[in-house]
Design a protein that fits this description.
The complex is a heterotrimer of chains A (about 450), B (about 325) and C (about 650). Chain A is α/β, with parallel strands linked by helices and about 450 residues long. Chain A is about 30% helix and about 25% strand. Chain B has a domain at about 30-205: P-loop containing nucleotide triphosphate hydrolases (Rossmann fold, 3-Layer(aba) Sandwich), CATH 3.40.50.300. At the A-C interface, helix 2, helix 3, strand 4, helix 4 and strand 5 of A face helix 6, helix 7, helix 8 and strand 3 of C.
Chain lengths: ~450, ~325, ~650
Amino acid sequence: MSRPARTQRIFQRIARTSHWYEARLTPLGHLFAGLLVGAAIFSSDPSRSQASFLLAGLAALFVIALVFCVSWHPPLAARRTLPARAIVGRETVYRILLENNGDAAEHAVLIRDRLREQFADQHPASGLDPSPLKRDNWFDRQTGFRRWSRRTQWLRGALLPSAYAPIITRTAPHESIIRFVPLRRGLIEFSGIELARADPLGLCYGIHPIATVQQLLVLPRQHPVPGLTLLCANLARLMPQSGVPSLTGAQEFHALREYRPGDSFRQIHWRASAKRGVHVVRQALDPAPLACTLIVDSCTSPERFEALIEVVASLLAAAATAVPDSLALRWLGPQPTAPEAGIGAQPVALLLDTLALAKPTIADHFDAATPHLEVPQVSSAIFITANWASNRRVFSDRLSRFHRAPAHTIVVTEDALEINDLPARGCIIRGQQIAHDLAACRFTGRRA
Amino acid sequence: MNEAVPPAITPARAVCERILAALATAVLGKPETLRYLLAAYITGGHVLLEDYPGTGKTTLAKAFAALLGKTFTRIQCTPDLLPADILGVSIFNPRLNDFELHRGPIFTEILLADEINRASPRTQSALLEAMAERQVTLDVATHPLSFDFFVVATQNPVESQGTYPLPEAQLDRFSLRLSLGYLPLAAEVDLVMQQPAMAMQALKACVTPAELDLLPQALAAIPCARDLIEYAVRLVAETRLLDTLALGASPRASITLVQCARALALFDGAPFVTPEHLQALAVPVLAHRLILKPNGRYEGLNDRAIVQALLASVPVPR
Amino acid sequence: MGTAPAPTLHFPRGCLLVAMGAWGIWSGQWLSACCAAGLIELSAILPYRWALTPPHYERLADLSSVGFVIFALYIFSASKLLGIYHILLEFPWVLLPLTIAQTFGVGQRIPRSAFLMALRRERSQSLAAVDLRPILASTCVLSASLAAPPRPYVAFILAILGIFLFSNRNPRFSPIQWFGCLVAATMLAGAFYLGIGGVQQGISDLIQSAFSDVDMSVTDPDRTASALGTVGRLKLSRKIRLRIDAGLSSPLPIRLTEARYQLFDNGVWRNRPQPLQLLDMGAGNTGWIINASLKPSRQMTLVAERTRELGTLALPAGTAVITQADVLQLQQHPLGSVLAETALGFVRYQLTYRLGAPLAAPPDQDDLQIPAAYRPLLHEIATQAGTPGTTPEVTLEHVERFFSQHFRYSLVQPSSYPGRLPLAVFLRRTRAGHCEYFAMATALLLREAGIPARYVVGYLVDEYSDREHAFIARGRDAHAWAEAYVGGGWRVIDTTPEGWHAAEAAGDPVWQELVDTLNWSRWQLRQLEKGEFGNTPQALLLLLPFLVAWLLWRLRPLRVAPHAQAADGSEQTAEFLEPLYTYIFRHQRLRPQPGETVLNFMDQHWPSRPSVPLRRLLRLYYIRRYSPRGLTPLEAQELNDLCVRVTSTRPKD
């Protein structure tokens, strides 16, 4: 939804002014500022009102307060220690360490952590409405300012509380713990830390900004998927066997089995055969399990894309706990070739990182991408889509019929009623109730 | 041309033209690829040919070796290829009562490693180490390789199961990554009519080793203006600053870029490096050295596109 | 350690009682106010609470708003626009119900949804809540300012602000430091107060001058408007209206007459409609003759700033001839005023006059006219003043003494007395007024005593300006006095107390100097335009910094950006390629991209002609540019020629 540039600028100015107001003035300062404005209005007619005294007094108080505020330059250094990752919807904790490099102790310092200033409409993906509430009140429909400010806050990623340091000395640095809940996945960019201290009168804050630019990668929300059982097979095969690629190059001796006609003579384990009396061949085990494949169709609208990412992240997280490093992601996107290849599985952590930053594709590459899809037949495959068009139906049907291991289809949608031809092993996840529907999904590892 | 040309250049240029002309008749393909191949050979680098099967990679390498009169060996990489199969092995000879070194196929002048991405990582690294150091350590002895050892590695760009893609850090050892591509219709008709098998038999060396010795000296004599070198370095430096890349190109890339540009200038008889040479070489030299961030691939970026975007944005000295 | 709730406003106990009590006392409803305040304070002691939910608060807020709207409508219908003061005075009552609900409610805070309808639909989000008590206290403070006398109000403010500040001060600083800040703030507040007064004065002057100059700067010979009966402080314009060059030996103050009036009619002096006599230049173009019988002895030059085309000229008594004037037409009124039709802006006129020679025209019946409504008043005052005296001289003396002894000059009329004549108020009750009061009262009193008197309007000039080297008359120097016919001649009777000039000048704001300078510079510019070089060099000097600044401002966009040489690094480009680039640009509107080499760009975009040896040119250029050996002289020549040739050929299209 586009907005004229003039309105955007007005909104930004309003946002910046209210931010300045919040940051610069203490609550008493807010009250006195209101009084100042009232006194200015009232004193416009001096013959009727004595408010000029009030105006003069308040102005003088603010001037004295500002003098103190502007002249505060403490020798404080701050350092932020962020965790490696955060997850949407889960409380994240990080620390800020304040060190005093001067001799005098600093008292009563307010610590505010600042995110990079971004506004809705500047970011192309901010057309997304983060909250499920519709615009159903007249004011919001007319101006849209509240919606804009909500979106701006969502874009910045978090609402950070402020911390308080009663005393910081050279020998006793202060460590604050800040807890917050990230609002969205992606990168949260911290721009700096603001230290604030009120003046003696208690009206304004003197602000000492410390620029520390850091980024925190927030992973998508993950819900538990109790029904997820994956079939990830280890290839047991004769050793050595040319023609069948060994994935790791390593072949471990695994088992002995009876000779079957057609096995190569070189595989016969003579000593064991002598003991047993029948011919026995060696079998090697490729220790890397063939991964279960998640095929994700990334072409969808931005709203459904978020739900899709949540579902995929939940599956990845669940799979990681069940069978670690056994998941491969096939991302059907703008590139005609599937991006993951080689040995098979990327660490789940890396996959979650890429999911955190993934963006939806607008153009539909499904038909171009699926022919190049290589899915190992011996492990489960899960096809996840948010766009249940006819080509997806065909693909899902083909997958469930011809894939040797069990194949599932998951459709993420708003309206469950529009889907009526889901294959037998499929489930529908509604965008509003992802947690509930994921818990209800049953993935059986066996063929029905 | 009536400008004064250093004496080394004209005969070198003649030699190069002869080689290229002969190569063009033997292998029907893009002429730039042939020039780049020769440029890489002259500058002492190695080439990675990435192309679909059947486009003539092996033919090219064979023809190249034949025309230069160099010994040629071909290794077909398979997953069960062992390092010993490439480097060589010591075998106990009971008659001599000692271990006898059987050299592997790497001890040659031009080596073609077909489908290098099918070899296991252990084997790949053995080959790549030898390429880098130009010597092979077997048992305790070190054996140097041929002084103009040249490797042409090929791989199939369509990645599939059962392949081991070359680690990105090792890709840096290849000077250029080239591709032949499919021929236009008329050329393909000619190709079929030509009966290539017969043509390959008829190839003979068109240059002598002495003539080949002229080339490095000629290369050194070609000047490159300082701002062009700065331009080349800036191109490479920009790759390190892009935030869509996890790792950019190394200084080795800058050196290769300028050296190969000199080689191209030599072929043109310019005889100085021009910005067009640098721009033409940017993609073959830089594209395979860039490591994309994982999310970059999901967004549809590829390394060639990044290099081309870079070419368009870095200002050229005019 | 380290997370603490955000600092909030601490509202001290008893603060609300003080605020509401003071407001109640001054607005005349102290009992109810104190009861309400007491109730709120009691809530801290009483354990009773109501379980109020946000819908309750919302309904209460709606009720308060509706009540407020009804009250406002009632007040407006009763007392029109002035009712706003009444509404503002009573505003705290609107907030009281909600405050009581807050203090007796369980949450101790009012949710924001009570005030904003937009927030009422969203119940799920936790909304910030508002503490209404400080807002109520602030409203009481502001409303009290409407009704409080100055000194107690100052004490009240000090008390309230002091309480707030003390309870919310930063604990890191000691109370001594805090007190020191407070003292500094009080002193600064004093300075600000004076400044605010000046600002208000200046703003009102501005407004005044915008309106009053249009109406009152040009006097109408037929009637006056007067400021009689205006309540409050009379605001006089400080704008310079006249510049008088009268020679340094003329006595001060200079009295200039604009118009004379005979009939008094409900606070307005006017004249009987009489025909005006058109003046024309005398024979020999010596000037307009005002009074032929006078022998002029002095000369005066005046420059007036006119805002209307038709109006009287200010002339000294005893004007004989107007020798020079930028006027289109002059007409003379039988009573002596001269009506001029001029262009707008600065008008200059020169005249000759004789000092101390009043008009000699005899009085008529109108000079003794007294309106019936004023007779009893004047009779009473005449008794007080002891008029009529034995002789007219004695009467004059008595009148002057009466006014000087019992009356004082004041620009402020404290309050209105509806239904009473302003002059009666002046004469009986206040005994203080500005010059118009004095002049009118004098004229009427003299008429009551049987002496023909007229009301005269003009200027009394006292101020000399060094910058202008002339006397200046401002709007506030406009003066009114009476003229009495005694002993065969008209005599000026000015009973306005001395020192009124000083009193009015005392109210000048600080920047009056600046305003005067601007006015002067305007006058100098005008003179420059007309070709009269008065104090022109100084005028030019004043203008010079503005001109220089303006010049620099205009030159800024022309600043030459350094040629984009980052990649080229060489000036050779400009020499050879610039004409080619320009050529391509003119035909294709394209410039090369940063990553485009010369060869690629030219190849692609050069409008092709087979005869144009572009290739050769580029080849030579490349040798020149990239090869360290450079070009031979022959080749350089060839390059030059080719360049010229290429740019001179035009493509067909």
